Amino acid sequence: MLELRNLSKSYASGRPVLSNLSWTFRAGEFVSIMGDSGVGKSTLLNLIAGLDTPDVDPNAPAASPIVIDGVAMSGLDDDAATKLRRARMGFIFQAFHVLPHLTLLQNVALPLLLNGLPTARAAEMLAAVGLGGRGDDFPHQLSGGEMQRVAIARALVHRPALVLADEPTGNLDPDTAHAILTLLRHEIKATGACAIMVTHSHIAAGMTDKVLQLSKSCIQETTIVNPFKQ
Ligand SMILES: Nc1ncnc2c1ncn2[C@@H]1O[C@H](COP(=O)(O)OP(=O)(O)O)[C@@H](O)[C@H]1O
Ligand SMILES: [Mg+2]
User: Fold this and answer.
1) Domain architecture of the chain: domains with CATH
2) Using one digit for the tens of pLDDT, what is the confidence trace for 94-135?
3) What residues does 25 pair with on adjacent strands?
4) Three-state DSSP class for 36?
5) Average pLDDT, stretch 77-86?
6) How far, in Å, is the centroid of ligand 1 from the Cα of 49?
7) How far apart are the first and last CA of the chain?
8) Which ligand is nearest to the CA of 215?
9) What residues contact residue 188 under an 8 Å CB cut-off, 6+ apart?
10) Which partner from 100, 139, 200, 228 sits 20 to 30 angstroms from 92, CA to CA?
11) b/e sequence 91-114, b meaning 16+ C-beta within 10 Å
């Protein structure tokens, strides 16, 4: 459902961050990406999200290095990219990014509103992440783990085909992280989304279907032995 074809990225300041990466991600897969700090993991997620643009390949200037469900991202203007992102993607961040002035229910309903969809599923999704009775609460009343539950509900409420998570358990203690990833995995499998999660944690990576190691010019599948894997 997501293809990277010779994806490269360099910032104006100089040296390439990513060069000639190719990989195919399939629907329904929960994949983790590991790699040293600064190797370009967040850059890769931003490129996939269409929030940043890849380098143009001088040998194939018309080619799109990112193709989502057959749609060449490079062929989209800003409006079309925004629409695609809104409708087809969900995001989960280390710092939660839950909006403080909205209730939990309003936070979760946001992707539905932005897509012009009925909002009834927001309450269902909040219940699915174990916060059913808390819809009228505000984020400051939550623990970090609860905040990330809200973020997961918000990321999945509009049934996106692709979920991008950048170190979603980086701010959580190990037990809470394990509970959150169990939940995330369950919800992804329930919706059939493809999810790509950047993580530093071998335990977190071990809970995904496939672990990829990112280096500047290479993505490689790798194996992690994890006693928690279910
Ligand atoms: N907007 C930017 N402008 C210039 N350099 C950047 C920008 N964003 C990231 N970088 C650089 O690109 C490299 C990869 O960053 P990043 O993708 O955040 O790495 P990771 O998430 O793997 O830690 C780093 O060297 C970083 O300094
Ligand atoms: Mg990063």
Assistant:
1) 24-37+79-222 (3.40.50.300)
2) 888 899 999 999 999 999 999 999 999 999 999 988 999 999
3) 2
4) coil
5) 93
6) 15
7) 25
8) 1
9) 30, 156, 163, 195
10) 228
11) bbbbebebeeeeebbbbbbbbbee
